[in-house]
Design brief:
It is a single chain. The protein is an alpha+beta fold. The chain has 15 helices and 26 strands. The strands form six sheets. The chain has an eight-stranded mixed β-sheet, with helices on both faces. Strands 8-2-1-12-19-18 form a six-stranded mixed β-sheet. It is globular, with a radius of gyration of 25 Å. The two termini are 18 Å apart.
Length: 592
Amino acid sequence: MDPVIIVGAGPVGLALSLALAAQGVPSIVLDEGSGKDEPRPARSVVLRADTAAMVERLGCTTLRDEGVRWVGWRGMRRRQVVHSLTLDVGLGGTEEWSEDPAAPSAPAAPLHIPQHALARGLRDAIGHQKLIRLVTEARLDTIEQDRDGVVAHTRGPAGTWWRGSHLVGCDGARSTVRKLLGIRFPGRTAVERHAVAALRTELPWPGEALLHRQPPWRGAPDEISARPLPDGVWRIDWLLPPRGDLVTPDALVARIRETLAGWCDGVTPPYELIDTGVHTLHHRLARRWRVDRVLLAGDAAHLLGAVGTQGLDEGLRDVDNLAWKLAHTWHHGASERLLDSYQSERRAAVAHRLRAADQSLPVLRGGGGLRTYLPGTARGHDALLTDGHVGRGPLGAPPAYPHSPLAPPYTEGRTPVGTPEGAPVEDVRVTAPDGTTVRLRDRLGQGRLLVLLVAPGTGVWDRRHWRGAGVMPRLEEAVSALPAKAEVLVTEAYPGAPAHAVLLVRPDGHLVAAFAGVHPAELYAAADAVRGGSPTGDPAAPEDGGESGTDAGARTGTKAPARAGVGSGAKAAAKVGAAGVSTGSDRSADTH
């Protein structure tokens, strides 16, 4: 089987290669650059708890070494503090979580890290992977595909043809992959502009992120944010008019001095200016994210970032959603429904986020309108912005997929729990098959379904006793018969779940269904729906079950015909052989 071709070596492309490698899938990453990232402290990214945990699972160590989790959030308006939140730095970190998963907790702390440090950490992780080949100075100029794979041509010192099972364009806002596919990329240009500076200084709120609206000093912009980085460094953003003059160095220094003095009782503290820039935000959404065996992810598929939304967060969620689906297809074949669900789920989630931001902008930026969507008070607007920045509400919360094409039909054995179907599951403490106690989040991203049994009291009993008691033998028998690889986990409690409830969780951590007890046929049907339908030759479902209702014509082994305008790939395939580039996965797996 040919490797997956990934075009683009930014954080999204690098993360996708690592996520595929974790599931035994080789990949070739085509980087049009030199493979070295210029240090730019003013170009930083904010990761929510779910995406930060995912990147850590991939082996990126720079999150802990060069990133900072905010200890709090402070929202100010003029001279008053209107919001002050203590954030939970333990979620996704090293501290213990609550023994009671239903207990209220502080919002999870976002993680702030320079983008070059994130990319370097991902590249270092790739250096330990034999399944990933990273090719630098390789500029894509041609894509052709046929029923069995994709062929891509690159220019550069190593210009040649590459053969892959699929190709994923992670090549940014000016995506060559998207342009070669002829996919439209409509949206809005320059939704927001910010002057940015990274500087080392002391502020009155160590470790806290700050959003200051309508600062009281003369000449101040409508909004200023300050976010901590390691070693006493802060990134400060000043909101600029949509169409304003260029920000000169002298004007930026004046902004810095005025801002620091405004926050420090009228006296500008000592500071060291490290880096500056102007950050322009666009809102765009690709019309299609999949054309047969070619897919888009990250900035190639969407651009967002206004009013606290985080574009890289959504790009990494693309990776989490796509990786297990590509891995299942690569190992077992899959129905068209499985890969189609990537576009259905992720494009809808990003479109919802973009709509929320676009509906908020007129009111938050003083343009009026849409009062029916937002509270009319300034405090209501400040709360909305706070939610966007700390990862809550329509502007910041992790997405759910309630209308996924992979959702199983409702059955009588289902039971409601604290997590809606399609939403991310809670990160509760679980006991793994080897007897160790870990977070549920630690078992994600390995390409297998998770079957979680809620069994109160198991924590006080020796595992060898409860492993063979109660419903466990029947549950393990049912899981062993599932049509996809699955792992049984046990937890003392889950929010809103009754005792002996069984939760089926996707490899990316979204709840498929919860059952009141062990229902082998219903569990089988739900697992079958998650993988997009039963492949030919699979063992039959348990006797009291049967088919999940998936269209038999969309089973594994279905080959996508060549799409008009993309290319048949026959001529390119011949060129691959002539160029001497391996078309199989064995060589790719052994190449660093």
